[in-house]
Every structure is written in C-alpha cells, then in structure tokens.
Design goal:
205 residues, alpha/beta, 5 strands, 37% helix
C-alpha cells in the first residue's frame, strides 16, 4: 500500500503550535513544528521529516500573560532564535509541497491534538503572510483527541501516549517540537493498530 491510497489522497502532516492566547487573529503565534509521515512497504505508518520554528510576534499581536506563564515562552528572548512569521510559514509550505508531491498525494491535511485550535492559528498565519500556494486543506483536519478517545479511552495527550506505551516526559510538554513528535507517534500508533486489527483495508461483502 502507498500513502496516497490510505487517506483519500491526503498527505497527513502533524502540527503543533504554541501561542500567546486563544484568538488566532489577535494573539501571537510563537512556535510551530510539523512532522511529515511516510508509509513502508508493509503499509505501516512512521514519522518522517521534522520542521520547527520559533516565531517573532507579528506586529500588533496580543500577548496574554497567562498564556506565556503556561507555556514558559519569553517572546523577546534572543536565545529563541525566532524568525519572522512569514519566513516560517513560507518554508513550511515549501517543504510540505515537496513532500506531498513526492508521496503523490493531492492535498495535505493537518493532524493535531485538538486540531481546530492548531488549524485556526495556522490558517491565520498563512493569511497574514499572504501565502497563495498553501498545500493544506482549509478546513479538513484529523483530530488525535477524537481518535485517541475512540482507540484508547483517553483524550489528554500524555494520558493517550501512556495508554499506547509511548514514552512522554511531562517536563518537555508544551514545547511545539516535543508535542508534535509525540502526537505523530500517537497518530501512527492508532492508524497502525487499526490496520493490525483488520480495519484497513476495509473488506466489503
């Protein structure tokens, strides 16, 4: 089986963001990571390429104190090595388009834990950056919160990972890079487990 046959031609890309609030149009996007996926000859899904950026708050962005205290990010710390939002989003779209084409998929789709949140910030950043060649579907997403609730009886990322025997260090949580990597592991686990149980490909009478 090839990846382009598994999700109706979609190329799944796991994404996580760290932000300065809950409003994607008002609050700053501060960190983003993306992990692409690949499928081996046995149809088993694995994490592949990783992209990661610390991002400068866009001009006029709101920075909620409570959000910064929660994720521990100092937006103006020089050691972050932050780049302009447009730089990050342009590079992500460029690399995802290349990977999507290599996999012979028609469109990319965001995979995320509570995907509506991450997709909202991603789409808002794409709009601010005036990127026309966005490889991602504007509203379709795969939500690992829902999938984990179904497959593992857990909806919190760390609890779902524990149920799947995926190592999770609570001290690393709320880093976009770490959370993306763990979400990718979780998504692959659920998809591969479904296949092992005989759920894919679906046998029709």
């Amino acid at each position: 089986m090839h990846l382009n046959q598994r999700f109706r031609g979609y190329f799944p890309v796991v994404i996580d963001v760290e932000t300065a609030g809950f409003n994607p149009h008002r609050d700053a996007l501060l960190e983003i990571a993306a992990v692409t996926l690949k499928m081996d000859q046995q149809g088993v899904l694995h994490p592949d390429m990783t992209l990661h950026f610390h991002i400068e708050p866009f001009e006029g962005a709101n920075l909620e104190k409570s959000a910064l205290e929660f994720n521990g990010i100092d937006p103006y710390c020089a050691l972050r090595g932050a780049v302009h939002e447009t730089t990050a989003m342009t590079q992500i779209c460029k690399e995802i388009r290349k990977a999507q084409k290599k996999a012979d998929c028609q469109r990319s789709v965001i995979v995320a834990h509570n995907s509506a949140f991450d997709q909202g910030f991603f789409n808002a950043a794409i709009e601010r950056s005036n990127i026309k060649r966005n490889p991602f579907h504007p509203f379709v997403s795969f939500d690992t919160t829902t999938l984990a609730g179904l497959a593992l009886g857990q909806t919190v990322l760390i609890k779902a990972c524990e149920a799947a025997n995926i190592a999770f260090d609570q001290r690393e949580a709320h880093s976009a890079l770490y959370d993306t990597q763990k979400t990718a592991d979780l998504f692959c686990y659920i998809v591969n487990k479904w296949q092992q149980l005989g759920g894919w490909p679906v046998e029709r009478p």
